[in-house]
Target: Histidine phosphatase family protein
Amino acid sequence: MNFNAQHIYLIRHARPLISRKGFFSKAQAQQYITDYNQAEVEKIIQRSEHLPLDRIKRVFCSTLPRAKATALMLFGPEVELIEDATFKEFESRIWGLPLGKFPLKWWQVTSRILWLLGLNQKDIESFKQAKMRAAQAADHLVREAESNGIAVLVAHGFLNEFIKRALKKRGWKVSLDGGRGYVGVTRLEK
Model:
């Protein structure tokens, strides 16, 4: 790692403590999303060796409980934690007729694909709006990295992916890609 470079760390929250097993009706799938947004997360047993803990003084996070809980487990109460709704996950709404029960993944994938195509965005943020918010989040993190040499965000898989894309368009290079796994750490530098 180049210590003279500016760094941005994107971290996905820990695994929520909520069951995905079984078959769900449309109403149950929608309730799952509500419950997921309020769920506690698994304890983090080991912090990533890729985080320069001695350099991190403040951490940005989503306003959703799973991101805040993860940030506190990773960095402790000593770090300044800045909750910001700009860093919330892309919204989700279950689409489909309320007939039958299906695996949760079927409801989620079908609904997300339709949302990406602009066909499932009633009463929620559109995909276009979500991408714009991710670009604003990227700009916010860039300003932080330019001021302090480092910016750290604990947020969500989908949002982090689009922040990463926005940063790459601004000339940032991925030096570590933690993917979308729980507590995955992606590092970008410039």
About this structure: The CA atoms of residues 19 and 32 lie 9 Å apart.
